Amino acid sequence: MTALNSKTLLSILLLSGVFCQTMAAENWLYRTPLTPTPSEEDQAKDCTELEHEIRDLSPLTYSYKPVFYDDPYQGAAVLAGATVAAPALIVPVYSAYVETQERKRIYSARERISVLRQLKAEKRCFVD
Hints:
With about 130 residues, this protein is mainly α. The chain is about 60% helix and about 0% strand. It starts with 5 loop residues before the first helix and ends in a 6-residue tail after the last helix.
C-alpha cells in the first residue's frame, strides 16, 4: 500500500470541505426548524379549502417503509452479501437513501400542514 503524498491529501481535504459546505447549505442531512409563513394565496382560502388541503396532505406524513429489522430485503441482502455476492450489500445503502427521501417528504408535508393549521386558527375555523 502506498502512502498518500501531501498534494493528494490536501486535495481530498479540500474536496470534502466543499462537499460538507454544500450539504450544510442545502440542509441535506439535518433539517432546520420552520417558521410558518403563509402565502397570500393561502390566506385567501376559506376554512373548507384549508381543511381539504390538510386532509389531502395527511397521507404524505405516514411512513410506508419497514424498519431495518422488519424488512425482509435487508436480511436477504446481508445474508447474500456475506456469503455469495458482495453487490447485494447495495440494498442497505439504497434502503437508507429511500428512507432519507421519505423523511424529506414527511417533513415537508408536516411543515405545510402546520402552516395551514396556523391559518385555520387565525381564521377561527372551528367545528360547530
